[in-house]
């Protein structure tokens, strides 16, 4: 089995064994019927005594029970003995099978997190451990999990996530659906190309990272993000590339990163803008249930074809993640964006608030419901409309994944997001619905 850093391994494995003792009674709260109950009790006693090999041999002599309660216990013991005997991949299959229909079983999720840790699937291990922290665990177990999370942060080198999706869009150019717009007090008929246009897109997105150890709690880190939306009308194709590079400090329970950033955007297959600057980001586990994060990025930005919009943009956020239970969490982020340009009519402040709720349901369904509200306040009047633009923007989203359906590690993803931009200049009013049908995976 995969070892832990020497500074934490004795504490961790003593805590794990302490949790294992009497585990099913405390965490699963499973009863036993008549058939097979005695054998399962014997297997459980062998596991509690640290005799996983004997327990597994005995379990192999018992057919899988038909009773749902006994079947859950049987599958759990099968996975637990596999994990203790150094077969974490097999254990992952067993534990995930249980959580598909019973996502609230804390002990199963705890062992799934440990199995992911053993195979160095750190993103999944981190997520499972963070969910378990919301379960009002004994202090020794909480300390154990926090040690695992510190070990994950310390050893992580590579990270990768990819998404492929069809993306139907009712308004690919984020434009008004009005036929007439008033300019200088006179109505004008809008060109069809300047009005709301629907389209079918293909989204490809990937994020990759690498950490090079420098010292005990220091890493040199590189992060690359790339996305591309390809539409049936090439005029609306949108591509983005961002590279960050710099040091990361790993104090207990958190991390602080300082990075230089360069980024490039293409729109309609033509170069659109580019920028360079810096970012500082920090996160910490404030309490077992509460995680905090903050970020500030400042970028000098230059446009290829419209130098009036050259300037700088600063983006800041303060976020919180709170565990409701071992299968649900909420997130909230306060954001602020300042766009400073050569001309005041393009400069604006844009504060906002986003919230999201993530829940694992039975039947293998994971849902994330989110919402955003923000106010964009421009500095100077738009000479075309003789008015200073002010927008309210609202959006709501729903994303569903089927976590028990997987092909090559990719899970199906279905989502919808609806956005309303309410401006005091009707030319900038619009609504937009974006759909997503695809697959996603984190490595």
TrEMBL record:
Q: Where is the Protein kinase G tetratricopeptide repeat containing domain?
A: 37-133
- Asked whether the UniProt record includes Lipoprotein among its keywords, one would answer yes
List each copy of the Surface lipoprotein assembly modifier C-terminal domain by range.
Answer: 158-443
Signal peptide annotation: 1-37
Protein's name in the database: Surface lipoprotein assembly modifier
| Top-level taxon of origin | Bacteria
Keyword Lipoprotein tagged: yes
Instruction: Supply the alphabetized keyword list.
Output: Lipoprotein, Signal
- Annotated source species: Futiania mangrovi
């Amino acid at each position: 089995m995969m070892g832990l850093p020497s500074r934490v391994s004795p504490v961790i494995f003593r805590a794990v064994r302490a949790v294992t003792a009497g585990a099913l009674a405390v965490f699963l709260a499973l009863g036993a019927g008549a058939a097979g109950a005695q054998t399962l009790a014997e297997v459980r006693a062998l596991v509690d005594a640290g005799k996983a090999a004997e327990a597994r041999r005995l379990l192999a002599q018992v057919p899988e029970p038909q009773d749902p309660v006994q079947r859950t216990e049987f599958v759990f013991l099968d996975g637990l003995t596999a994990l203790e005997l150094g077969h974490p991949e097999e254990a992952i299959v067993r534990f995930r099978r249980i959580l598909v229909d019973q996502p609230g079983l804390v002990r199963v999720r705890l062992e799934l997190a440990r199995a992911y840790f053993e195979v160095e699937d750190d993103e999944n291990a981190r997520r499972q451990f963070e969910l378990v922290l919301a379960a009002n665990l004994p202090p020794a177990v909480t300390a154990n999990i926090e040690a695992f999370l510190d070990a994950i942060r310390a050893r992580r080198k590579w990270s990768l996530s990819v998404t492929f999706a069809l993306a139907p869009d009712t308004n690919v150019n984020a434009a008004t659906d009005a036929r007439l717009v008033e300019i200088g007090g006179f109505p004008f008929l809008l060109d069809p190309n300047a009005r709301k246009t629907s389209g079918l897109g293909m989204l490809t997105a990937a994020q990759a990272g690498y950490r090079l150890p420098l010292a005990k709690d220091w890493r040199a880190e590189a992060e690359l993000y790339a996305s591309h939306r390809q539409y049936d009308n090439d005029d609306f194709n949108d591509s983005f590339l961002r590279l960050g590079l710099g040091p990361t400090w790993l104090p207990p329970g958190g991390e602080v990163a300082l990075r230089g950033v360069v980024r490039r955007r293409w729109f309609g297959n033509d170069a659109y803008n580019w920028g360079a600057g810096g970012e500082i980001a920090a996160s910490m586990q404030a309490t077992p249930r509460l995680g905090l994060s903050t970020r500030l990025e400042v970028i000098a930005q230059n446009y290829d074809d419209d130098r009036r919009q050259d300037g700088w943009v600063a983006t800041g956020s303060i976020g919180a993640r709170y565990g409701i239970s071992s299968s649900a969490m909420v997130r909230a982020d306060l954001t602020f964006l300042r766009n400073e340009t050569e001309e005041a009519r393009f400069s604006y402040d844009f504060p906002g608030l986003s919230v999201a709720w993530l829940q694992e349901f039975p039947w293998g369904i994971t849902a994330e419901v989110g919402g955003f509200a923000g106010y964009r306040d421009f500095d100077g009047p738009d000479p075309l409309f003789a008015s200073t633009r002010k927008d309210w923007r609202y959006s709501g989203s729903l994303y569903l994944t089927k976590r028990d359906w997987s092909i090559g590690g990719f899970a199906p993803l279905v989502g919808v997001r609806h956005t309303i931009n309410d401006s005091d200049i009707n030319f900038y009013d619009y609504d937009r619905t974006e759909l997503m049908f695809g697959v996603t995976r984190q490595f």
